[in-house]
Design a protein that fits this description.
- The chain is mainly alpha-helical.
- It is built from 3 helices and 2 strands, in the order H-E-E-H-H.
- Strands 1-2 form a two-stranded antiparallel ribbon.
- The longest helix is centred in the last third of the chain and has 14 residues.
- It is flat and about 40 Å long.
């Protein structure tokens, strides 16, 4: 189960997707923190004004939730 909020939650999800333990120490910090650069890259791409918003994001999120299956 992914815990945390915002960027931490996304970083933990990426860490788990790679099969890594989120809270083990890596270079002096929890492993999930090593995924923060990837999270920031995705968030920057989403914030780009040229990217579709509104209904398009709703459709994308619904698609991703359907792929993830029940929790």
């Amino acid at each position: 189960m992914v815990k945390g909020r915002g960027s931490e939650r996304a970083a933990r999800a990426l860490c788990e997707a790679e099969g890594l333990a989120c809270d083990i120490r890596f270079e002096g910090a929890p492993m999930w923190q090593s995924f923060l650069p990837q999270v920031q890259t995705v968030l920057a791409a989403i914030a780009d004004p040229g990217v579709a918003h509104g209904e398009e994001w709703t459709r994308i999120i619904a698609h991703l939730r359907a792929q993830a299956g029940p929790r």
